Description:
- By secondary structure, the chain is mainly beta.
- The protein is 11% helix and 35% strand.
- It is built from 4 helices and 31 strands.
- The strands form 8 sheets. Strands 1-28-27-26-25 form a 5-stranded mixed β-sheet, with no helix packed on it.
- It is globular and about 60 Å long.
- The model is unreliable at 10-21 and 304-362 (pLDDT under 50).
Amino acid sequence: MMTMSNSLKLGALAAVVVSSIAEAQIPATRQIGSVTATTSEAFGVNVFVRHLKDGVLVNDIANRRLLLFDTTLSKFTVVADSTPATANAYSGRNGGLIAYKADSTLFVDAASMSMLVIDPAGKVQRVMSVPRSQDAMVLGNSMLGAPAFDGAGKLVYRGMPRPMFRQERVAAGAGGGAPAFSPPDIPDTSAVLRIDLATRQVDTVAWLKGPKIKFDIQRDDNGRVNISSQVNPLPVVDDFGVMSDGSIAVVRGRDYHVDFIRPDGKRESAAKIPFEWRRLTDEDKVAFLDSVKAARQRMANAPMPQIAGAPAGAGAAAGGGAAGGGRPGGDAGRPGEVRIMIGGDGPGGGAPPGGGGMMGNRELSFVPAAELPDYQPVFFAGAVRADNDGHLWIRTTPTKALPGGPVYDVVNSKGELVDRVQVPKDRTIAGFGTDGIVYLIARDGTTTKLERARMK
Length: 456
């Protein structure tokens, strides 16, 4: 008869064997190829690129500029900016780039709910309205996903989960008829939408798991209501990308595999991708939360960055002040009003839909350690990018200390792990060209430069 001790030993041995098999299937991590060109022009923190046959479009979001560089990355022309220097004004909010027909590009201006069709020479040929007004923000914000056209020529993008707010009045005599508020409910899933620009017909092709945002409501003696957010800094999420053959690829974070929606509508699920999973003990979870809170405190004590177009001293995130109308000047508000403090751009990439200003970040709290996952997530939101050669690049979370920059899993059109590539320190991938070209953003404090490198 097998004893409990022997059973536990066999279970532990089986876990070691399974882990060893998984590690044997993981390709050795290699360094990305050499850098062949670097811009002398510096950009803000968030930069997105669109490779063209004779150049590259650079979306410098923080500085609200759209630039067209030549193939050497040494010369550029201004396509749009926030000054009268050009005939085309950059959006008052974030602008997004979407690869369009041939070498043309859509530049989405969320503020005006329009899409500029830009030709390969950087000239605006015409203007279209966004397919649906409620989707302007997600199409115009490259940090909320990577919209792209599928094999049928339909635009694919992540929909925006919408918080539901409820307000009820309490009975007279139990607060004098003052409004009683319930916490807003934000869904922890979002739809992958597909729309035909000609007919404006939209359908949902998949659902993505996202972080769950919880809220805490407090009312002071003067009747003011404060709603602060509570987030999980280690969310298990899904992400998606549109591959070069037009297939929609949904990467599942729970068990790390890819679901495909092919151009002909066929759906396929690939096998699990091997990964060196890291189990989190109770002590690990507590230590992680302590480190995140310490990092948050350092950020709170740092000077607030001033964003172009924001009121002096506001320190507001691009696109406005604190979500829900919090006053950037620090006004405590009037009796009976509701101030909603939404944060959440934490290390998990689990920003709540719609973002949040600096005030929201300072009101941010975290879930108890017991609510963190038992295994470290493979990736965070925004980790998936599709190249032009039939691969997905998935920026993975480090399971052990490695010198250098982040490591990307390279997955083919069958959902198989075929390569693992590490970029240099302080670099991340900004986009891809053809024939093995990759663009890196090299960060130095609050500025970045663009580099072109070879994949091998």
